[in-house]
Amino acid sequence: MLVIKPEITSLFKYCPIGKNQLSALAQRKIWYSKPAGFNDPFDTQFYVRGQRHVYEREMDSEKLSAIFGEDMSDVMVSKKRSLDELLDRFKSGLEKLGILSLASSNKNLLMWSHYASEHKGMCLEFKRIAGTALADDKITRPMNYNDNYPSIQASSILNEVDTLSNKIRILHTKSKHWEYEQEWRHVVEQGNELHPWPAELISVYFGCKTDMSDIHLV
């Protein structure tokens, strides 16, 4: 498998040091947020191109279920149908995902300030090598910073390959205002819960203002 940006051999997670973080560390787990919990209210927004109302396309419930999950198996299918319900379910699927936001460097002063309790927190280093989740470009990618929302063709959600491509573009596109973060994202099926580390934790770095008592706790 060809690894995107193989020169990036580690990815980093800036975070505060608190009860929740310490508990997660002890379990060898980390928190994955749903998109609604992000500090950018426009994150994962997208623009729909083309007519939404009617498409002459027949799809059986088995194929719909394979693309969107078992909850689609009871959807009525016909040659002429509105895409509104499918688009709503597509959006709902995005909203349920869990996202771990990572950085490509542990030396970003703004990241230490914004995400690690103003230099009082920590930064976790995860090893990124071929064969690990962090090297799988279907679930871990760098962000694309753009002035515009990603756009999708309405009818493309009827195609399994296009649906996956749409999800990847939407989840990994962000305003250029956030470019300083140099963010990567690892995506899992369910958000707002703890998941096992996506790769080996090889180092923990502490901020220049981190209390010695917190360092000892970690």
Automatic annotation (TrEMBL):
Pfam families, A to Z: DUF2971
Domain of life (superkingdom): Bacteria
Name the record gives this protein: DUF2971 domain-containing protein
